[in-house]
Amino acid sequence: MASEEPTICVHGLGYIGLPTAAVLANSGYDVYGYDVDPVLRKRLRSGEISLDEADLERFVKRALDDGFTVVEEVQPADFHLICVPTPYDKDLDKTDLSYVESAAEGISSVLREGDRVILESTVPPGTTKERLQPVLEAEGHSVPEDIGLSYSPETVLPGNTLTELRENDRLVGTVPGCPSPPIVAIYDSFTSGEIKTTTATTAEFVKLIQNAYRDVNIAFANEIAKLAQEFNLDSREAISMANNHPRVDILRPGPGVGGHCLPIDPLFLSEGNDIPMLIETARGVNDGMVEYVGQLLRAALGDLEGKTVTLLGAAYKGGVADTRESPALALVEYLRDENVDTVRVTDPYVESGATDAAAVLNLDESLIGADAAVLVTDHPEYGALSPEQFAEWMTGNVVVDTRAMLNHDRWADAGFDLYCV
Ligand code: SAJ
């Protein structure tokens, strides 16, 4: 370990803080990691790490053996990196910034002249300057005179965290008057991507419009899928051909948009005020896909009452175990409201008991006696599902493929009626 390197304290050891601490330690910094959860701290210290991504887990384990220390109390450090959750309270129409503020209180108690604080959590524009700065200044320090303050959003794609942490371009936004080069040097030590500098508020805004853009693009793809069905056309083939144009890049239709980012971040832009019409409509289109899938099922099965329906996938997208805001769980609720007799869920990544919405069963036990199966999550394993095996387990012959992963002819040959979004 190069002891002349600055020290860094990472606050919040979740799916961003933990890998970020690990890449920083790997770059030669002395890194302290602090999380308010004592059980998590203890587990991490005993090497018990369970992350969705195997390569990431190995990488974090190695860092914990060398350069990255999980600490019981916030430590003084040259740089403080805040990576805590910022949930959105839909009842209050407000972002819950309490984790950011309590991390800032912890930091302010150990702040020294010349230290620098960087916020990475997704927040409404203006948060760094208007909410974080006053807490840091409560103990007599002042930004930018003796403390540096910046915002640098993480942009990693869950499922590809390590690669994107080390390769994505990075935005470093500073509060006016604070120099950006020391912060740029930190990110430059581990990313091969380009680092651009701006103001903290612009960087906060950019993070939100990136996710809102993706949400709107997927909503467009979902609308195209519905339109294509009216014309009896294959929407994926049409989108793929449209994308051959050098300035067209439409995303993929599906059962709706889940995860903690795309469905939530657009709300940060307005916080209780009128959300821009296009963004709000896109949210409605994507949330409405669950009902569209329900209509496909109804068209295939007739009355849904008394039926048994199996959902393939509980996670919000393929290859991850995260069920937050998952379209699958919204579909469970929708089908129950439609008086479906039994809704079963299976998922190779999600542990049984991981969600309150439904028990997660093994593939075979979820399908025995089912009238219909709905492929909701694009887990790579689902491309290899066997229609002959399904025919043995299921009572009915209806399959709805919301991700276009199944080979239509093969499933039809095995006697299935296959419906696709
Ligand atoms: N989805 C589709 N069609 C597509 C792509 C995605 O229906 O063509 C669905 C997915 O199935 C999923 C949802 O959208 O339900 C979101 O998945 P995602 O892979 O698009 O994004 P996230 O939420 O996993 O990660 C996003 C990323 N943002 C952007 O690409 C602009 C990631 O880079 C961010 O770091 C992350 O949000 C975040 O933390 O904000």
Report on the architecture of this protein.
By secondary structure, the protein is an alpha/beta fold. It is 39% helix and 15% strand. α1 packs across α3 and α8 packs parallel to α11. It starts with 6 loop residues before the first strand and ends with a strand. The mean pLDDT is 95. Bound molecules: ligand SAJ. Ligand SAJ binds next to α8.
Looking at this protein, list some descriptive labels.
39% helix, eight-stranded mixed β-sheet, elongated, 421 residues, six-stranded parallel β-sheet, binds ligand SAJ, alpha/beta, 15 helices, 16 strands
Q: How is the largest sheet built, in terms of strand order? A: 3-2-1-4-7-8-9-10
Distance between the termini: 53 Å
Largest sheet: 8 strands, mixed
Present as ligands are: ligand SAJ
Are there runs of 5+ residues with pLDDT below 50, and where?
none
Rg is 24 Å
Structural class: alpha/beta
**Helical fraction:** 25-40%
Treating each run of at least 4 consecutive H or I residues as one helix, how many helices? 15
The tally of strands reads: 16
Estimate what percentage of residues fall within beta strands: 5-15%
Give the averaged pLDDT, no decimals.
95
Layout of helices and strands, plus pairs?
Layout: E1 7-11, H1 17-26, E2 30-34, H2 38-45, H3 54-65, E3 68-70, E4 79-82, E5 88-89, E6 94-95, H4 98-108, E7 116-119, H5 127-136, E8 148-151, H6 161-167, E9 170-174, H7 181-188, E10 195-199, H8 200-230, H9 235-242, H10 265-268, H11 277-301, E11 308-312, H12 327-337, E12 342-346, E13 360-361, H13 363-367, E14 372-375, H14 387-393, E15 398-401, H15 408-413, E16 417-420
Parallel strand pairs: 1-2, 1-4, 2-3, 4-7, 7-8, 9-10, 11-12, 11-14, 12-13, 14-15, 15-16
Antiparallel strand pairs: 5-6, 8-9
Helix pairs in contact: 1-3, 4-5, 8-9, 8-11, 11-12
